[in-house]
Amino acid sequence: MANVALIVALSMSAVHLYTAFTGSLDALLQRSIHLGFVFTLTFLTNRGKSRVTWAGLLLNLACIAAGILATAYVIVDYYQIISRTPFVTPLTSVQYIYGILVILLVLETARRNLGWPLPVLALVFLVYSFLGPYMPGLLAHRGVSLSRLIDFLCLGTDGIFGTPLGVSATYVFLFILFGSFLNTSGIGEIFMKLSTALLGHVKGGPGIVAVVSSALFGSISGSAVANVVGTGSFTIPMMKKVGFKKEYAGAVEAVASTGGQIMPPVMGAAAFIVAEIVGIPYIRLCLHAMLPAILYFFAVGVMVYLGAAKQGWEGLPRDELPSAWGVLREGGHMFLPIVVIVGSLISGYTAIKAGLYGLISVVIVSMLKQETRMSMSSLLEALEEGAKTAMPVASACACAGIVIGVVMYTGLGIRFGSILMWLSGGEPRIALILSMLAALVLGMALPTSAAYVVLASLAAPALIQMGFGRVQTHLFLFYFGVISCITPPVALAAYAAAGLAEADPMKTGFIAFRLGIAAYLIPFIFIHNPALLLIGHPGEVLLAVPSAIIGAFSLAAASEGWFLTKITIIERLVLAGSALLLIKPGYVTDLIGLVLLSAIFVNQKRKQATIRDYELGASN
């Protein structure tokens, strides 16, 4: 089975590379082939099963056969499918069987790759589609017959084969493959070595290294848990070595790794879906996301630095650190593929072409040095790993397509806007809080891609109707879907980091929540102040950037309880007020915020001088 899985994985990567070179196939065809590979790989690798029994083996083989037959049917009968009139031309018996098989396979594939939450959610929506006439109030609808449901979900590009799966089958797969090639070439190790060389000596240096290396690595991996595993195995032991408590070390890594999904130029699978649904080029979405990502990592870095100063955690001795110039001389050329991707996007190439050129450049550039040179076996390993990494993303997109299809066909999306208006009493701020809670709850149970897609079809239209901008609204929902990874009680990134740190998962999750406090405010800031997304008059942007950065510093100090020295409760409250005033747009609020921060700074300098004089007197 392993050898067959390898051949299928390599074939999947080869087909996607071919269509990237020659141009994507027709939408339904491209997406069906993509999903067919995912079906086959999932059951070949026995995902979600701890051991193989004869009954399990037979079930896997039956599912593989069903997936191949379903994909073959679309390929063979493609022109008849696209030429029929939906909801008018009756379904054939073959189409009935095909539709039922696809729905069942999507649910089972999602269960094996992602666990129970997403398929259960999809099943709830499927049941809702049939029980519409019996539902109360705004939830009621006329009901859906099985034939119409299959027609909408499986024989067009609105349900399972909708936009999310389309993005997975094109942009996302290539960028996952790009990340796989970079990882195989050793770029992750280079990121960590360079961060250690530059920042390992400062107070709490290993924690700062975790923040910076996770920002760099996360921008390529685009997955919080993958980022934790990729960088945490190096940074967490290093933090513990200089005195970091194990829960704190795990929390730092979890928060830093989670931010990788919002860090351009590669922000994770969900970001490509955001760009597609909003209807803007991916490079423009990266520009909008750039400043909030910088604010996020700046706030986390400051909190780690102040926390280290409070606890007396020093950096690493300089003689234990690698040379920054030596690291760049050894592997600095591996940054060029990232430049290629960004340059391609800026030059106007599509995300597909940019991903393809970036991938090719990885292979070429890696050949420049023996340390990074990719052999034929490592190339095959990267192709295999890329295909397997894409499986959960594609499964999430396909299963979320069931939810979106039901929402669209039953009109629930329109009625959900009325429900949100009713629950919030028409008050936009309350609607934002309710949407935030929905995003956090869904994000705890579902992958970011699936959580965002569901919210984009339910909550986004209502928020836009209330007057919030389209870009701000979708990024608002996307951000809260991301930071659910550090939101207790289900904080997946924190739990992964706790495992590496041998720490208590719940304690690690709550510390991560505190360290990431800025992340919970940033979306509320930019949805009211689009200047933080580089939207609006240049003067507003120039004012928003420095005030937001200073405000993030104030918030970090207030949360950590340390500035130049330990701060009192009153000082914490003043710093928190200063942060909110600085972050809020406006000349007056910025001025008041700066005055408050300056007052705390002066008071802290006075206290610092008093402590120094006392220590000098005691030593004499």
List keywords for this structure.
76% helix; globular; 28 helices; 620 residues; mainly alpha
What do you see in this structure?
The protein has 620 residues and is an all-alpha fold. The chain is 76% helix and 0% strand. It has helices at residues 2-22, 27-44, 54-76, 78-83, 93-114, 117-130, 146-154, 163-184, 187-199, 205-221, 224-241, 246-258, 269-278, 282-311, 324-331, 336-346, 351-366, 376-410, 412-424, 428-445, 448-465, 470-483, 492-501, 505-515, 517-528, 538-560, 569-583, 587-619. The radius of gyration is 26 Å and the shape is globular.
Please describe the topology of this protein.
Layout: H1 2-22, H2 27-44, H3 54-76, H4 78-83, H5 93-114, H6 117-130, H7 146-154, H8 163-184, H9 187-199, H10 205-221, H11 224-241, H12 246-258, H13 269-278, H14 282-311, H15 324-331, H16 336-346, H17 351-366, H18 376-410, H19 412-424, H20 428-445, H21 448-465, H22 470-483, H23 492-501, H24 505-515, H25 517-528, H26 538-560, H27 569-583, H28 587-619
Give the biggest sheet. Answer: none
Number of strands: 0
Class based on secondary structure composition and strand pairing: mainly alpha
Low-confidence stretches: none
Distance, first to last CA = 76 Å
- The coarse silhouette is globular
Total helical elements? 28
Mean of residue pLDDT values: 88
Bin the helical content: over 70%
Percentage of residues in DSSP E strands = under 5%
Secondary-structure element order, as H and E?
A: HHHHHHHHHHHHHHHHHHHHHHHHHHHH
The Cα radius of gyration reads 26 Å
